[in-house]
Amino acid sequence: MEPAKRREWRDLKPIVIGLVVVGLVFAGGIAGYWTWQTGSQQHTASQQSSGSALSPPNPAPAAAPAR
User: Fold this and answer.
1) What is the average per-residue pLDDT within 49-62?
2) What transmembrane ranges does the database entry give (predicted)?
3) What span, in angstroms and rounded, lies between the C-alpha atoms of 24 and 27?
C-alpha cells in the first residue's frame, strides 16, 4: 500500500470498528426482542389453550387495621 492510503485506513479504522460494533449490538437487540416476543406469544397461546391462563379471582384481602 502507498503511505497515503495506509494513513487513510489508519484514520478510518476506529470509525469502521465502531460502526461494526454498533451494528452488532443493534442486530443482537432486534434478535433478542424478536426471540422474546415469539417465546412470550407461544407461551401465552399454550396457556390459553390448556386453560391454565384463567385463574380464579383472588378473594379480597382483609382490610388492614388503620395505624
Assistant:
1) 58
2) 12-36
3) 5
